[in-house]
Design goal:
The strands form four sheets. Strands 2-1-3-4-5 form a five-stranded parallel sheet, with helices on both faces. A four-stranded antiparallel sheet has the order 8-9-10-11, covered by helices on one side. A three-stranded antiparallel sheet has the order 12-14-13. A hairpin with a 4-residue loop joins strand 9 and strand 10. It has two domains: about 10-130, Rossmann fold; about 135-240, Arc Repressor Mutant, subunit A (Orthogonal Bundle). It contains eight helices and 14 strands. The chain is an alpha/beta fold. Helix 6 crosses helix 7 (about 190-195).
């Protein structure tokens, strides 16, 4: 995160006075905050807008906090989640952490400790996300073959059989990776979008087509045949190595 950019914290808390208190406290300590008193309004927001961290109460009027946590974890780029709850049951705490919560803070809490915990979680999650390229690829993803070319995720580069090299975008990389991992079968457009962008991504088929065109142009400019990569009109794509 840019040092001048404030981390955005979504406070999901049905106690309005506590939510306002938290917003004031976090604002004083350099965070930008959005308040939500129901799960539904928060979920609509987080699907469209960037959120760095969610401070989530387990007891909400319209949806269980653990269900909210489960939905957040399915987002293409999920924010960190810290549970804030009066429940001190070890079983509940373990359940929340096992479900993907990054930390659990019990009410009542010390204000300074809460801020310190949020900052610690943000440091961990930002570092962990540094290597993520797309939903299905990371910088650490090993090199793989696509047709006669070799794709190198760590360099965002393709080496062609004729000796040439070309840079490739993140989304094009994710597309190639998913196709080569599913050879000999038709991969639907929806399945490909979900693999690269995430299950809840608002990506149209036309946008996917534009990325596929970029792939074909890159391979074509470097004299590489893509007979192994076919478009099945109205359905999706087919990758068959060896063709």
């Amino acid at each position: 995160m840019n040092p001048k950019q404030k981390a955005v914290v979504a406070v999901v808390e049905d106690d309005r006075s506590l939510a306002t208190l938290l917003a004031d406290q976090l604002g004083t300590n350099g965070f930008a905050t959005h308040l939500f008193h129901k799960a539904a309004s928060f979920l609509r927001h987080v699907e469209k807008e960037h959120v760095s961290l969610v401070l989530l109460d387990l007891s909400l009027p319209d949806l269980n906090g653990l269900e909210v946590l489960a939905r957040v974890r399915k987002l293409p780029t999920p924010p960190a989640v810290v549970i804030l709850s009066a429940t001190d049951s070890p079983a509940v705490i373990c359940q929340a952490l096992d479900a993907g919560a990054d930390d659990y803070v019990r009410k009542p809490f010390e204000r300074a400790e809460l801020v310190a915990r949020l900052r610690a979680v943000l440091r961990r999650t930002e570092t962990a996300g540094d290597g993520r390229l797309t939903r299905n690829t990371e910088l650490a993803t090993g090199a793989f073959a696509f047709g006669a070319a070799n794709v190198h995720p760590d360099r965002l580069e393709v080496e062609f059989s004729g000796g040439g090299r070309g840079k490739i975008g993140r989304k094009e990389l994710g597309i190639l990776f998913h196709l080569q991992a599913n050879p000999g079968v038709i991969v639907s457009r929806h399945a490909l979008i979900h693999a690269v962008w995430g299950e809840h991504a608002n990506i149209r088929s036309r946008s996917l087509d534009q990325y596929v065109v970029k792939i074909r142009d890159l391979f074509g400019k470097n004299g590489e045949s893509l007979a192994c990569f076919r478009t099945i009109h109205g359905i999706g794509y087919w990758y068959e190595p060896g063709r």
